[in-house]
Amino acid sequence: MRPVTERDIRTSFINCSKGETQRLNLPKDFAQSPWEDLDFLGWRDPGAPERAYLVAERDGSLVGVALRVTSGASRAFTSRSMCSLCLTMHTSGGVALMTARRTGEAGRQGNSVGQYLCTDLDCSLYVRGKKKAAGDGVVEESLSLPEKVARTRANLFAFLAKV
Ligand SMILES: [Zn+2]
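Above: query sequence and zinc ion SMILES. Below: predicted holo structure tokens.
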């Protein structure tokens, strides 16, 4: 994605109020993000660990989504689980259910959509092999890197479309 500024980020959110958008904490050193390796900028709020954010470029404009991280008791605490965006397998704790309040009337009625995502939201880096999941996360696949990136983006945009 192209490098974005703090102002770009704060004006990109589609599912939270202006007040929330102003209060959220940006990732430390986000200006040094490896933009060329990112399909989206995702981070946990350094001041509120139950909050996470995801900012992506869609059709030339930025779309930001605020997420709630559900840490909840996992039934299979020792099992592995998969991120629904990048399909990386993680050991327990590496994937969390994150829910986004829907936009508009649906959101006002309390509707949300949830997805299991990498808890650090570094999907772009896992896909590119720039970051390794704990416990050898990689599922052997015959897909090329561009195909994996395309799949991750398709999953991302499918998720954004539901918010
Ligand atoms: Zn992921």
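The chain has a mean pLDDT of 91.
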